[in-house]
Amino acid sequence: MSGYASISAPGWKAIVVTAGNRWLGVMPIYPKRKWGLSYHLQPIFCQYWGLFFSEELTKKTADTLSKKAKVVQKVIEALGDFSYLKYYFAPEFDYSLPFIWSGYKLSPRYTYHLALHPTEEILWQDTAYDLRRKVKKAKKIGLSFNVIKDIDKWAELVRLQVAAGRQVMGGVPDWEPKMRAIAAYLDSFKGLHLYGVHDDKGNLIAAGIFAHFQQKAIFLHSVYLPTQKNSGAVDLLMWEAILHAKTAGCTHFDFEGSMIEGIEQFFRKFGAQPILYLQIAKNDLPLPLQWIRE
Fold first, then answer.
1. What is the pLDDT of residues 60-105, one digit of tens each?
2. How far does Cα 236 stand from its chain's mean position?
3. What CA–CA distance (Å, rounded) separates 105 from 218?
4. Please, are residues 172 and 178 in contact by the beta-carbon 8 Å criterion?
5. Axis-axis angle for helices 129-140, 233-247 (nearest 10)
């Protein structure tokens, strides 16, 4: 996904730890400088960053843990001096002790994953009653799920939400060119999936962007007409996107969060399970700036 990284974090670099000609670990980094201070921040539109171990380090043995410890220590050394760092490490990262020993602060975060191996009937039974009711209601009032090919339709709905005073994309001002570039990159290897929900008159009232990559389906963004909040359109959109991912051969669906209570409750309704990942940070800013940053 180096192309995705180049869109989200232009000028990104990587620390690569090797043994001979073998790569043991890779950590993408996004170093920046401002006011004479060097810092690392999580790139926008990247759910995970952090250190990734090679496949040979996935075994749970004492020798493997020793190698992981050395890889993490080499990464810490290569990071060098900086004033501030905060990255979200992918759930697969499972050896963080050297960061703790080196004075980094670790905080838990959660995403939600849904296993797609059961039958559609079992997936449906594992959802919350409230979700099933809303999906049935959406279909009853004539809402329909469709594959859409034009990202302009999605962007138009986002702009309508902005006009209605809702914050979108974390308040990032240049969200549209970024998301269009991400969509084009995903589409280059057939990983882009755009879906929409139309009302009984054929009007698009909700839309979502999803990525399929290495048997994973990843939810990137959804949007709906402000007047359609209680129509069940988003419930129908997400449910059908899950079924499409299963049909396409994906083994699990990553909701990419959320730590926000209301959104977490929505994801939980699909039968998804919480998956822990780590925020790893270090704050060596001058004391007044530390207070502001925290």
1. 888 899 999 999 999 999 999 999 999 999 999 999 999 999 999 9
2. 21
3. 28
4. yes
5. 100
CA 48, 46, 22 angle in degrees (round to 5)?
A: 55
Reduce the DSSP state of residue 106 to 3 states and report it. Answer: strand
From residue 85, alpha-carbon distances to 22, 50, 68, 81, 199 in Å are 28, 11, 21, 10, 46
Task: Choose among 242, 188, 264, 261: nearest CA to 1.
Answer: 188
Q: Which residues contact 262 (CB under 8 A, 6 or more apart)?
A: none
- DSSP SS3 for 126: coil
Helices (DSSP H) in 102-232: which residue ranges?
120-125, 129-140, 151-163, 175-188
Q: What is the pTM (predicted TM-score) of this model? A: 0.89
What is the CATH architecture of 2-110+277-293? 3-Layer(aba) Sandwich (3.40)
CA geometry: angle 157, 199, 176, nearest 5 deg: 15
Quick: pLDDT tens for 194-252. 999 999 999 999 999 999 999 999 999 999 888 887 889 999 999 999 999 999 999 99
Q: What is the CATH number of domain 118-250?
A: 3.40.630.30
User: In sequence order, what are the beta bridge partners of 87?
Assistant: 280
The C-alpha R_g of the chain, in whole angstroms, comes to: 21
Give the ranges where 24-172 is alpha helix by DSSP (H). Answer: 62-79, 97-101, 120-125, 129-140, 151-163
Scanning the structure block, which residue is given the tokens 């799920």? 145
User: Taking CA 47 as the corner, what is the angle to CA 46 and CA 52, rounded to the nearest 5 degrees?
Assistant: 90
